[in-house]
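Supplementary Methods, section 5.1.

A reviewer requested that the exact input to the structure prediction be made available. We therefore reproduce it here, unchanged from the version used in the analyses.
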Amino acid sequence: MHKQRILFIAGQYPPQVGGLARAAERNVNHICGKSRVVVLNITQSLEKGRIERERLNEETEIFRIGASKKISETLRLAGILIEDLHAECPFDLFAGFYLIYAGYLAA
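The structure derived from this sequence is encoded token-by-token as follows.
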């Protein structure tokens, strides 16, 4: 039986600090045993459009993308990355964690 593949979009995710980042990580840890999870983290800590990929374990990997100062540009960059990842290996579910960026992109 194939495990579901979930795209978990989070505006905050460790090593970013704060309660939202920790809550996102808890949610991912909870679902990764039952599903394969790809985390998309939009971050100010990378230069605009730069993408970093990190594999945490067999079932979880993180793609971090650098945000632009313009929200519309950030959404376009993230949307292109989502389309590319989905074309490579389709997602069964899109989950947005919090409204800014994540909720919009998941919808």
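DSSP finds three helices and five strands in the chain. These observations are discussed further in the main text.
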